[in-house]
Specification:
Layout (H helix, E strand, L loop, with lengths): L2 H101 L12 H11 L8 H6 L1
């Protein structure tokens, strides 16, 4: 081989070596960027998975605490509302009966068919109370 060919081959080999080195460093830089991105994604994944686990634990804790409380509240509510409604029904029934009896008019031959509530008002007027808040009743007494 001639010296020119050797120099040409050396130049070609140098050129090839430069390309190999540049592609090696390019690949190394790309791998470093990808590994950094993977690490960032791993950190985000760890953070998100920790948040999800925390939320699941919180949900189970809330469920274990408030599910019995809610069922207990429902039972107490049914024990209170049922008898309470019954008691209110009895009270309303007694009030209705009392009002019916007070509005009941006596027969015509007893006190000319006056209602019991009117007798009660007249009795109060005769006892000297007389103040019913209206002028029409004050004039009656």
């Amino acid at each position: 081989m001639t010296e020119a060919m050797c120099n040409s081959a050396k130049a070609d080999l140098t050129h090839v070596c430069v390309k190999i080195n540049s592609s090696f460093y390019l690949e190394k830089g790309v791998n470093e960027l990808l590994s950094a991105k993977r690490d960032d994604q791993r950190i985000h994944f760890w953070i998100l998975s920790a948040i999800v686990r925390l939320a699941e634990n919180f949900q189970t804790t809330i469920t274990y605490i408030f599910a019995p409380v809610a069922s207990l509240f429902q039972a107490v509510r049914s024990f209170i509302i049922g008898p309470g409604m019954g008691l209110l029904f009895v009270v309303r029934f007694l009030i209705e009966i009392t009002l019916f009896i007070l509005n009941l008019q006596l027969p015509k031959w007893i006190l000319n068919g006056v209602a019991l509530k009117d007798l009660s008002a007249a009795g109060k007027c005769r006892e000297g109370t007389g103040d019913f808040g209206t002028t029409s009743w004050d004039n009656v007494c």
